[in-house]
Design a protein that fits this description.
The chain is α/β, with parallel strands linked by helices. The protein folds into two domains: 127 residues, Rossmann fold (3-Layer(aba) Sandwich), CATH 3.40.50.2300; 67 residues, Arc Repressor Mutant, subunit A, CATH 1.10.10. 52% of the residues lie in helices and 14% in strands. The protein contains nine helices and six strands. Strands 2-1-3-4-5-6 form a six-stranded parallel β-sheet. Strand 1, helix 1 and strand 2 form a beta-alpha-beta unit. Helix 3 packs across helix 5, helix 6 crosses helix 9 and helix 7 packs across helix 8. It starts with a strand and ends with a helix.
Length: 208
């Protein structure tokens, strides 16, 4: 027997929310959770006109209540709002004009499988925004989207090669204190145990 994916639908507009609920209730792949159902859905669908502060609050609230994956159904979205939605915890975006029952069900299935959902048009806009963020905000300050700076990445890479603090300081023309402080910043920021853990974490996450 097909195991249904538990999903809930929430919207700022009750009429829009009810419309999507009606669309999804007939799908055999899904089990739509109502307000009286105490189950925690693995996927939530947020129906909003655009990514406003109220929409972001709704997305964060659903995540806080246990919905691991959130899909946003939007009437419109600009580059900045797409990035804000991703930061709030959205794993997929579907245009309301494309939100047929089949398309929504497919998006929910992808979300439940821990995959992202985004149309090619929206993906291009999101990547453009990410590129601008990297080039105009992070790069001028020596930072990357990975969360570590160029200096931190270089120090971790040299530590991974087995070099001592003194050797790294000499090679990079920094003081030993600067190198130690750099390592301490990484360990603290990512809640790591020590420099060995920091190197292992950076390698595992592809940061260096």
């Amino acid at each position: 027997m097909l195991e249904r994916i538990p999903v809930q639908v929430r919207g700022l507009d009750p009429i829009s929310e009810a419309g999507v609920v009606t669309q999804l209730k007939s799908r055999p792949e899904l089990s739509v959770i109502t307000g009286t159902d105490e189950r925690t859905p693995s996927v939530a669908v947020v129906v909003v006109d655009s990514i406003t502060p109220s929409a972001l609050d709704l997305i964060r609230a659903l995540r806080a209540r246990g919905s691991e994956r959130v899909i946003a159904v939007l009437s419109s979205a600009d580059d900045s709002s797409l990035l804000s939605a991703v930061e709030a915890g959205v794993c997929g975006v579907v245009s309301r004009a494309e939100a047929t029952p089949e398309r929504l069900t497919n998006a929910i299935e992808h979300a439940a499988a821990m995959e992202g959902v985004l149309s090619p048009r929206l993906l291009g806009r999101l990547l453009n925004q990410v590129s601008r963020l990297q080039n105009h905000v992070l790069a001028p300050r020596g930072w990357r989207l990975t969360g570590i700076s160029d200096r931190e990445a270089t120090v971790l890479r040299l530590i991974a090669q087995g070099k001592e603090i003194k050797e790294i300081a000499a090679e990079l023309s920094y003081s030993e204190r600067t190198i130690k402080n750099t390592l301490h910043d990484v360990v603290t920021r990512f809640h790591l145990r020590n420099r060995t853990h920091a190197v292992a974490f950076a390698l595992q996450e592809g940061l260096i």
